[in-house]
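Q: How do we represent a protein-ligand complex in a form that can be generated token by token?
A: Start from the inputs.
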Amino acid sequence: MKAWVLDGPNELHLVEKPVPSPQKAEVLVRIDAVAICATDLEILEYGTPALIQGGSPFHKNFTPGHEYMGTVAALGPGVDEYRVGERVTVEIHAGCGQCVRCRQGMYTSCLNYGLNYGNVNKGHRANGFTTDGGFAEYAINNINTLSRVPDDMSDEEATLVVTAGTSMYGLTELGGLVAGESVVVTGPGPIGLLAVAVAKALGADPVILSGTRDGRLEIGKKLGADRIVNIKRENLVSVVKEMTGRGADYVIECSGTEDAINQATQMTSRGGKVCLAAFPHEPVLTDLGALVKNNIYVYGIRGEGKSATRRAMALMAAKRFDATLIHTHTFSLAELPTALHYARNRIEDAIKVVVKTYDTEVRMGKKELAK
Ligand SMILES: [Zn+2]
Ligand SMILES: [Zn+2]
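Then emit the structure tokens for the protein with zinc ion bound:
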């Protein structure tokens, strides 16, 4: 099969690799489409948070990419949960199933993360992070990481389920949203925009979205934001206090900036909750005293645990929001470097860039890929 592998930082090469074979509780997925995520760009440049053979992912024949969907192509021994030919979308993490965190249901925080190298095989997979991912024609997935794709959902839309699942997991970790509670989302990137959509679909009121780019904020409005705040023109903390009275019940921070983290500490109500869904590169100075004095809870989240991807798929299958509003560009697998360039530099306001790996009509030369 064709697969992109990571050599040095930002050096990808298209190579031939053997098609992997599924083991117990696994299927082989023919990848039909894969979306590019900011975390892919992070891995290509810095290596982390990918962990291959116990260390950096560079020069290890590693294939990144984690937001993919496709068609079940082969079944491992004993698998009867899926059939060959079913369209599926994936979540990233299959925990080892045997460590303390997996036993608690926290498989995205599996203590055996990355321990599947050399003689060690703990059964943990995080495709595109610790095991081969989706910038290829085929990948292996544990059956617990699959969700079925409805016939009327496009390949492109199905790649967005893992992003919506991350937003859903954030709300889950905050204790589960109660309809009528207020939510502020800071940062209109893909996770922030879909956090707005998921929160609104679950009955949050009001939902407030902040950012600096009007175009993205407008998309947030279409996805359900009751109020958008361009922080270059308005004071977010005052708007939130005015609309909610005592501050927001929940803040989902998706920008990774010190300013937004500080705003979160100021605009969350007493006893409210903050979810940090983006990672700042530098240590952040913030008023921890305000958090303590106001009994504000802060949660760090990573990934899309507690089957959040399946729950996000339920909302998308029911057309509770239109995730395709964040899909802006499509390329073929051979054009991956161009696709990454568009995503990295936000060319033509790119938000989600999707790579179509398998498209019968394109392969047969019957149609051009739409950009
Ligand atoms: Zn991602
Ligand atoms: Zn585990």
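The mean pLDDT is 93. The chain has two domains: 2-92+127-149+322-356, 166-300.
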